[in-house]
Amino acid sequence: MISSRNLRFSYSPQKKFSFPDIQCGNKETLLILGQSGRGKTTLLHLLALLLKPESGEVRIADKSSNALSQEELTSLRARNIGIIYQRPHFVSALSVLDNLLLPNFLVNQKQDKVKAVQLAEQLGFTEHLSKKTHQLSQGEQQRVSIARSLMNNPNVILADEPTSNLDDVNCQKVIQLLKAQSASIGASLVVVTHDQRLKDEFSNQVIL
Ligand SMILES: Nc1ncnc2c1ncn2[C@@H]1O[C@H](COP(=O)(O)OP(=O)(O)OP(=O)(O)O)[C@@H](O)[C@H]1O
């Protein structure tokens, strides 16, 4: 579960944000909708503990992030949060499979090849596992990115514009996959987007 309270952040005195509180329990989904520039990625990065708020707090799995050191924040993030970034940020020198195994490596866990292959099967990219990520189409990369976010069985999945570059068919596929995968591990799923096609897919919504 993830929640936030009174989050404020500024990049400069001219660029200040005050975000509405959010709450997303285990197995629940939340859509955060807003037009370009409203601060969706900023909010997602605050929720992902990648940015530190000026004030307010983020709670993950009932733990407040405020009192934690940078090292503890990094560990909390790596163990509890699966992030699907707007751009996937793969390690280009590594294969698709090795990119999937990186999250295990980052939390000193055994690299779970069985799980990586299982996710590739569920998400339909088994034949690409030994390729480099740049050899995949955008839609395929998006699915690899979803699989990577699930490798450590996170409590919370945060997705930044997961469908914005996809056609209607793939938009539907990706959102159903995200819902099904997060439900199957009992995670909270938070999606930020300006993609109006997702409006009818989520009952809980926050507008920025
Ligand atoms: N590192 C930064 N330094 C200064 N300003 C920034 C920085 N990152 C974002 N901004 C500004 O903050 C505002 C919000 O950016 P953000 O990326 O959070 O918006 P967004 O709603 O996700 O937009 P989009 O839908 O276009 O991705 C924008 O005006 C952007 O220019």
List keywords for this structure.
single chain; 208 residues; Rossmann fold; five-stranded antiparallel sheet; globular; binds adenosine-5'-triphosphate
H/E order of the elements? EEEEHEEHEHHHEHEE
CATH class of the domain at 2-91 and 154-207: Alpha Beta
CA radius of gyration is: 17 Å
Helix content: 25-40%
Distance between the termini: 21 Å
Shape: globular
- Based on DSSP secondary structure assignment, what is the total number of beta strands? 10
What percentage of the residues does DSSP assign to strands (E)?
15-25%
CATH topology of the domain at 2-91 and 154-207: Rossmann fold
Query: Given the helix and strand composition, which structural class is it?
Result: alpha/beta
CATH architecture of the domain at 2-91 and 154-207: 3-Layer(aba) Sandwich
SSE map:
Layout: E1 2-12, E2 15-18, E3 22-24, E4 29-33, H1 40-47, E5 55-60, E6 63-64, H2 70-80, E7 81-84, H3 96-106, H4 113-123, H5 138-150, E8 156-160, H6 168-185, E9 188-193, E10 205-207
Parallel strand pairs: 4-9, 4-10, 7-8, 8-9
Antiparallel strand pairs: 1-2, 1-3, 1-5, 5-6
This protein binds adenosine-5'-triphosphate.
